[in-house]
Amino acid sequence: MFLPKYPDNPTPPPAHTHTTAEPVPVRRPAPQISVSTGAVAAVLVGGVVLTALLAAVAVTAISVAVAAVVLRSMLRDQHRR
Fold this sequence. Notes:
By secondary structure, this protein is an all-alpha fold. It contains one helix and no strands. The longest helix is centred in the C-terminal third of the chain and has 44 residues, at about 35-80. The radius of gyration is 41 Å and the shape is elongated.
């Protein structure tokens, strides 16, 4: 009457279950990009031209600023007299 009931399968479940490892993603080789010498030269020349234009704009802006300061001081001296 008070006897324990045993399970039908007497073997205990395994303590460690084996899981399958995720497959390693396959690396695809990067596509080869061929760059011609003319394209490299065009990019370099374009960069040099843009840099020269930027330098010219900067020099012009500084020159205009200096001229404005000189003219302002000249006009201020003229109004004082």
